[in-house]
Amino acid sequence: MTQASLPLQKPATIRPRGAVFNWIGVIPFFLFAIAFLFLPSSSLFIGSFQNSEGGFTFDNILGLSQPKILDSYWLSIRVSAVTAIGGGIFGFLLAYAVSIGGLPAWVRSSITTFSGVASNFAGVPLAYAFVAVLGRVGFVTGILKDIFNIDIYEAGFNLYSFWGLSLTYMYFQFPLMVLVMAPALDGLKREWREACENLGATSFEYWRYVAMPILLPSLLGTMILLFGNAFGAYATALALTGGTLNLVTIQIGAQIRGDVLHNPGLGYALAFGMVVIMAISIAAYTWLQRRTERWLR
Amino acid sequence: MAYLELENVRKEFNNSVAVENFNLKVERGEFVSFLGPSGCGKTTTLRMIAGFELPTSGAITINGVDMTDTPPNKRNVGMVFQAYALFPNMTVADNIGFGLKIAKRPADEIKKRVKEMLDLIHLPVKGDSYPYQLSGGQQQRVALARALAFQPQVLLLDEPLSALDAKIRVELRSEIRRIQQQLGITTIYVTHDQEEALSISDRIVVMSAGKMEQVGTPFEIYNFPQTSFTASFVGQLNLLPVTVSDAEGRRCAFNGRALAVGQPIRFANGASVRLALRPEELNLGGASGDSQRNELTGAVESVNFLGSVVRIRVDVGGATISIDLFNERQLVLPKAGEQVTVNFPAESCWVME
Ligand SMILES: Nc1ncnc2c1ncn2[C@@H]1O[C@H](COP(=O)(O)OP(=O)(O)OP(=O)(O)O)[C@@H](O)[C@H]1O
Ligand SMILES: [Mg+2]
Question: What number is the ipTM of this complex?
C-alpha cells in the first residue's frame, strides 16, 4: 500500500502555520498587558526610587512611614475589610437564597442581572445616587424625618464618613459576591447532602463537615477579591467625601496631581505599596481558588 | 417476617404516578435487584427506602419497624449513589469513617473499622488519598465501604457501576456480590443492565412504567418470563407471529407450517399470538424427524460476530429471527443470502400475546 507516503506532507506544512495563527488572537492581549500593566508597573517601581531630578533615592519609600501615610493605608484597609466582610456575608446569604433556597427561577435571574449591573456601578454616579438617597437632604433621609420623625443624621449617621462610605461601597461589593458564590453553591452536589443524611448527619453537620469546607476557599477567595476591589476604588470616595477621608487612593491623587501636597515620588511609592498589597491579595485568591478546583475536579 | 417489606407503596410527583402497587418482601441477607428501563421508577422506589422521598401511600418496614415517615438520617440504611458522591474535601479514610464520626464513636474504634473496610475493598494503602486521586472504580469501592462502615441494616445501590467502563463494571459487580455475601447484608441493587442483574442477584424485580412486572430468581426471570415485557426486556427474544391451531394439543401454525409448543397455550384456537423463543435455543440444520423439535426455513440476512457468540439473522418469511451459536473454531457458517433450515426444541418456546 502507498498509504504511508501520501498523507504525511500536508499536516507537516499546515501545522506550524496553524500555530502562528493560533497566537495572533492573543497578541492584542499581550500588547495591552505590556502597555497598561507591565510598563506602568515598572515605571511605578522606578518612580518610587527616583527623586525629582531623576536620581536614585530611598526617600520616597521611607516617606511611606509618615503617620499620615500610614493612617491612609490603615483607613483603606479598614474600609476594604469591612466592606469585604459585610458584602461577603450579605452576598453569600443572597447567593444561598437564589441557588439553594428553592425560590422561583425568575427571582434568580433578576437578582443575577441586577448583580451584574450593580457590581460595575461605581464612581461618580454611584456617589451621587447615594447622596440623592441618603445625603443630608436625600430622599430617604427626608422621608424618615418627615414621616417617621427619625433624623438619621441626628442619630449619628453620616454618609460622608467611614460608615457612610462603607455603605456606599457595599452597593458594588455584595453583588460581586453573589456573582461568584451562586455558581459555587450550585456546585454543591445533591449527592453530598444526601450521602451525609444517609450516614446519619443532620443538616448542621452537613454544613459543618462538608459544604462549608468545600466552599471556604472560594468564600475567602472572593472576600479577598472584594477587599482588592474596595482598596482600589477612588472616584466613588472622592466624589462622595471630596477628599475628606484619607484613603490611599486619594493620597496618591493628591501627591501626583495636587497643588498643595505635590510630591510625585511619594505618590509613586504609595502606588507601589498598593500594587504590593493587591499582588498579595491576588496571589492569595489564586491559591484558594486552585484548592477548590482541585477538589471539584 | 420479612426483613425489609414494602406494602402497597405508591409515589406520585405532581399527580403523575412514578411507582404504584409496589409489594415486596426481602429476606435478611438477600440480594434483590430492581431491573427496568429508564424512568420506570427504580430510583424512586430506592429513594423511598432510603427516606429521601416519602411514599404518597403505603408502608415500608425494616426489621419489623415501620420506617415510612422516618427521616433519612435516622434509618440506618447505607446508600451508594450512581455519581461519585464521595466528600471531595475528605480523605478516603475520613469518608469511610464519616458515619461513625457522626455517631460519635471513639476515634480508635473508627480507625480500626476504617482499616477493616479498606482491606475489604482491597484498597489498603489508599486511606490518605483524596477522592480526586482515585479512579472511578476505586471511588465506587470507597463509596461502598463508606455505606457499609456504620453497619447499616440494609444496603442500597443505585446504578453504582453505570459511570464505569465495561471491564471494571464486570470486575466490580462480582466484588460487590462477594462483599455482600461475606457480610450477609440485605441489599437492594438498582440497574437497567439485565446482564448485571442476572449475574449477581438472588432475586430480581422487573419493573416497567412504575409497576412490578415479575419477581423471581434470575433463572425464573430468564427462563419463565410471565409477561411479554419481562420476556423481551430480559435477554434477547424472537417473536414469531403465529396462529393457534390446537390449543389443547399445544400446536400453532406459522406460514402453514405446524409448530409444537412446550408450554400450555392459554389462547383459543384461531387466535393470533406470538411465539417466543430465545436465540440460543435455535440450531442450524433440520429437526431430522424429531417430533419434539420444530423446523423453519429461510434466507440468511446477516452473520455477526459478538465475541463468544455468533448471531445469525434469518428471514423466515414474514419475520426475522436471530440465532445465537457458540463461536467454535469448527463452526461452518452460512453466507448472507444462503437458504438454511433451523430447528428448535418445542419445550423452549412459549406463546404470548
Ligand atoms: N423529583 C421528581 N419530580 C418529578 N418527577 C420525578 C421526580 N423523580 C422522578 N420523577 C419521575 O418519576 C419517574 C420514575 O423516575 P426514576 O428516577 O425512579 O426512574 P429510574 O427507573 O430510576 O430511571 P433511570 O434508569 O433513568 O434512572 C420518571 O417518570 C421521572 O420523571
Ligand atoms: Mg435511576
Answer: 0.83
